[in-house]
Design goal:
By secondary structure, the chain is an all-alpha fold. It is built from 10 helices and no strands.
Length: 167
């Protein structure tokens, strides 16, 4: 793990090399989870972002409350890429306990973070998030973010209707 972390933190290496190192860390997963968990506080944005992906893989393979807590905490990271990666991971894992945190992220100053939050909420398909999404839509100024929020709303409404019809 330490040599892979050095690759991620190196400013000289190309993104493709860093991508392979991040993939390798995710593949190692559960076997090195303690080492990976420690790196979520790295000074390097690339390392923190890769850790989110690796921790998400651990949470998928072996649900672990500590892993989910680290992912939720990463929603407030200083780096947009880490916040967005964490939101995507929580959405893919459909970790419903993160819904309040994702709703809060809908109001972040960074547009990419707001989009990631809306997409994560969409993947959870919980009708309870429709009102917060609609509120966020009325406050949203960026057209690209508005489009993603509208997509999330329409997909959740569609899923709710399908669920009602199948009962």
């Amino acid at each position: 793990v330490p040599p892979l972390l050095e690759i991620l933190a190196s400013p000289e290496l190309p993104e493709s090399t860093k991508g392979h190192a991040a993939w390798a860390l995710a593949f190692i997963g559960v076997e090195a989870k303690d080492l990976l968990y420690q790196q979520i506080d790295s000074d390097s944005v690339e390392v923190r972002s890769a850790m989110v992906g690796a921790i998400a893989k651990i949470a998928q393979e072996q649900p672990d409350e500590q892993a989910f807590n680290l992912l939720v905490r990463s929603l407030t990271d200083a780096a947009e890429s880490v916040r967005s990666e964490a939101a995507a991971a929580l959405g893919n894992l459909t970790y419903r306990a993160a819904i309040p945190n994702l709703i809060e992220l809908l109001h972040h100053p960074d547009g990419e973070s707001r989009k990631a939050a809306a997409l994560a909420l969409m993947k959870m398909s919980d009708p309870a998030v429709l009102e917060p999404l609609k509120t966020a839509l009325t406050q949203e100024k960026e057209a690209a973010v508005q489009a993603v929020i509208k997509l999330a709303i329409s997909q959740i409404e569609k899923q709710s209707k399908e669920d009602e019809n199948s009962q």
